[in-house]
Write a structure and sequence with these properties.
237 residues, alpha/beta, Rossmann fold, seven-stranded mixed sheet, 6 helices, 9 strands
Length: 237
């Protein structure tokens, strides 16, 4: 898949202020931030082209190449990191995300959950901050992702959500020293995939864990920095 390089508006160009062109900005984001950096999964690229990131964040550059605050001391990662995690966590098998049971730990703004739902997954997303969970539900519903596609629950994400497991994929959007044991137990033993930043508070590696029965295969992908994973099986707040 190839995305066209779009012209940039010149800084200081004369004329009235133009309203944001979100469609153009999404196309540029997909081309310059995702595809140019090695995100090749066509379904992932289509999902990022479709989901209105500006509906989930506040600020002048919703499609910018940077993390953004979402309230309660939490952040939404830059688009590339969200796409990298999504591509790495793709469930094995020909159906991929379609109909897959997926857990997200750390709802934040709801953007990652919307991407997963757009890919066809059935998403349970855990948020420990009730106010963020409520706002994410509103943003998801307004963008067309109702509770049949994304269920946002409030709880300790390090404990997972066993009632809806096992999960074909688990995405953890906060960093901790190790993957919480309950999440590994809720991961589908038939090739389930978990992606999480693992390390200390200042330095982590995006880490992929694949489960086959009781065997867990772990691979470090690239360095990242996320907010800390707070909870019983994570870090202290």
């Amino acid at each position: 898949m190839r995305w066209p390089r779009l012209p940039r508006r010149r800084e200081g160009a004369a004329g009235p202020e133009q309203p944001p062109d979100h469609e153009r900005d999404r196309q540029r984001m997909v081309w310059e931030q995702l595809q140019a950096r090695g995100v090749r999964d066509p379904e992932v690229l289509e999902a990022f082209q479709s989901v209105p990131r500006h509906a989930f964040v506040q600020g002048d550059e919703p499609y910018g190449d940077h993390a953004m605050p979402v309230g309660s001391g939490q952040t939404i990662s830059q688009p590339y990191v969200v796409a990298r995690m999504t591509q790495a966590a793709r469930p094995a098998g020909p159906d991929g995300w379609h109909g897959a049971n997926v857990l997200e730990v750390g709802t934040g703004s709801g953007y990652q959950a919307a991407i997963l739902a757009e890919l066809g997954a059935r998403v349970t997303s855990i948020e420990r901050h009730p106010e963020l969970a409520a706002e994410a539900r509103r943003a998801l519903a307004a963008a067309g992702y109702d509770e049949d596609r994304v269920r946002v629950v409030v709880g300790d994400g390090t404990e997972g959500w066993p009632d809806a497991g096992p999960y074909r994929s688990i995405l953890v959007t906060a960093g901790g020293p190790s993957v919480p044991k309950p999440l590994l137990e809720q991961l589908d033993p038939d090739g389930g995939r978990l992606i999480m930043p693992v390390g200390d508070r200042q330095h982590q590696y995006l880490t992929l864990v694949v489960r086959h029965g009781t065997d867990l295969q772990s691979t470090e992908l690239e360095p990242v920095v996320f907010v800390p994973l707070i909870g019983r099986f994570g870090l202290e707040g």
